[in-house]
Amino acid sequence: MFIERLLNQGNAPLIEQAVKFSAARQKLLAEDMANVSTPGYVQKDLSVQKFQEMLRERADARDSAPVGSTTFDDVTGELISPTSNILFHDRNNRSIEQLASDSQKNALFHNMMIEILRKQIGQLEMALKERVT
User: Fold this and answer.
1) H-run or E-run covering 80
2) According to the 3-state scheme, what is the secondary structure of 54-110?
3) What's the pTM?
4) Which of 60, 67, 106, 130 is the most buried (most CB within 10 A)?
């Protein structure tokens, strides 16, 4: 109970949702890259902006709510069909370069969130073992 409450008070739940979001987005980006030449395939992605807005709103709500009453489990991204690239007659966005770039950005974001979470857990572990760095 104490450990769970300690973990849920900090940024760990937000980082956990960011990691889940980036993993789900990476799956969609990989699917888009695999189907770049499939006629009629419509590109899919998760809205990073909508996810960040939802996460920010939930974090603000958590600040004014009693401890432990706000959860982040239902914060997910909104599925979109981006049309920012050249749209061909079969509604396919054929920009493998843009997809590769988005995939790399998403992977870097994922790795950064994992590293931040790892450091936070390491600090909690040291505090529980009563060690000073």
Assistant:
1) strand 79-80
2) HHHHHHHHHHHCCCCCCCCCCCCCCEECCCCCCECCCCCECCHHHHHHHHHHHHHHH
3) 0.79
4) 106
Q: What is the rounded CA–CA span in Å between residue 17 and residue 11?
A: 10
**Secondary structure (3-state) at 87:** strand
For the stretch 108-120, pLDDT in tens is 999 999 999 999 8
Whose tokens are 């054929």? That residue is 94
SS3 93: strand
Q: What share of the chain is helix, strand, coil (3-state, %, to 5)?
A: 60, 5, 35
**DSSP assignment, residue 91?**
S
- Decide if 113 contacts 19 (C-beta within 8 A): yes
Q: How confident is the model at residue 36 (pLDDT cuts 50, 70, 90)?
A: confident
